[in-house]
Amino acid sequence: MDVATRPAHVxxxxxxxxxxxAFALLCFxxxxxxxxxxxxxxxxxxxxTDLSGNAGADLGFxxxxxxxxxxxxxxxxxxxxxxxxxLQVPLRLRMxxxxxxxxxxxxIRDEDWDEASDYLRIIxxxxxxxxxxxxxxxVGELSGATVGHGTLMSNYLNVLDIDxxxxxxxxxxxxxxxxxxxxxxxLAQPEIFGGRAFVxxxxxxxxxxFLLGWSVGLSLLTDLGAPRTIDxxxxxxxxxxxxxxxLQYTTEAVVMLGFDTDFTVLENEIVRVTxxxxxxxxxxxxxxxxxxxxxxxxxxxxxxTTLNLRLEYQYLGESYAPQYVDPLYxxxxxxxxxxxxxxxxxxxLTKQAVVREAVGAHGYxxxxxxxxxxxxxxxxxxxxxxxxxxxxxLLQLLVPTxxxxxxxxxxxxxxxxxxxxxxxxxxxxxxxxARYNVYLFIDLIAQFNRRWRxxxxxxxxxxxxxxxxxxxxxxxxxxxxF
Length: 482
Known about the structure:
Shape: globular
Number of domains: 1
Number of strands: 27
Radius of gyration: 24 Å
Order of helices and strands: HEEEEEEEEEEEEEEEEEEEEHHEEEEEEE
Number of helices: 3
Helix content: under 10%
Distance between the termini: 42 Å
Structural class: mainly beta
């Protein structure tokens, strides 16, 4: 069969596959020869003077929504001196297409590669140094970015919509005299920016003084393309969606400014205590003000055991929201507090529209992270206020260092009314991942993700609204060090 006589869907599949694999080939051609690893794969510590790293492939079988997929991942990590970076080629091959069907036969999932920014998936990450060093920078998917004390941006995740990928930026500078932070949501089309600059005033007077623990900072948070109202068909009131599955809306930039100060009142080998005050303003015609007063406590115990605590009081003025950019912001910005609040005949309200009308209230926040012997890391955050549907919960479990097992679990629920709703799976984000090294370089892999997708099937009564989508897969992986 020549090219002209191949079915259209086959030609389409071949073209997509050739495009993705050709791009991947250019990335991997120059990689050194591989040698088999005798331990579970891990990126070598930064500081190596020679190029080193690892490479491998994962193969998984599972479901995304109602459809069944074969998932293929080729990946490689490299490290030289302070620089490390990872490349990958993630492919989903639709094996069983349930109604409503999107195509004929086996094909690469369209939504994964229909925008220019989707091809940035090839870049898994680019990183300089490690968190906590004088200068740290990372380009990649944001897995919980926080600016300052987290009163404007807290645990931000930039990839929640399964149909759209964003390559973000997270950088930090920390010196004796001061420093700064910068978070960007998407290099291809930046809209959300979080930044903070701070200074330690007494460092210019006496670098050995107790007052060196005092710092003052200025923060800026912007969403330049923040949705204000959802566009709809005047005749039917149905939301408008473009051909690449983007909801259409009118925009109005959100700009928030903050001034903060903190002072470490106690610091020794065991405990560090730092009270802080943040004053924030949501700019605009409906300006809002918020005050945050809290204390950070870090405890270091023998056997590499750590405990971090945070308690905070919040005064929430009218037209103000704390942690404006939070784990679920990418969805909340178009449907607040959650898509499940809106039926088929109701246009969702954007977060900006709801916050601009918010009443004044008092709130609180508690956060704890514990890491016994450095083997397991458990985190919990709960925030609430007197407002309706204004409670947030974040839970995280990481097992990062065991030789044979890697485990990660994340659960986030925001915008619920009472603690009894905290574990209602509707509207929650849930991610779980486990990797077990069974023999030499062979791993067993299991993962589950609950994220969102925009309903774009015209016949669906929820057209133009977001719905939760579950993705799970089981498979095997192989990796090699070089």
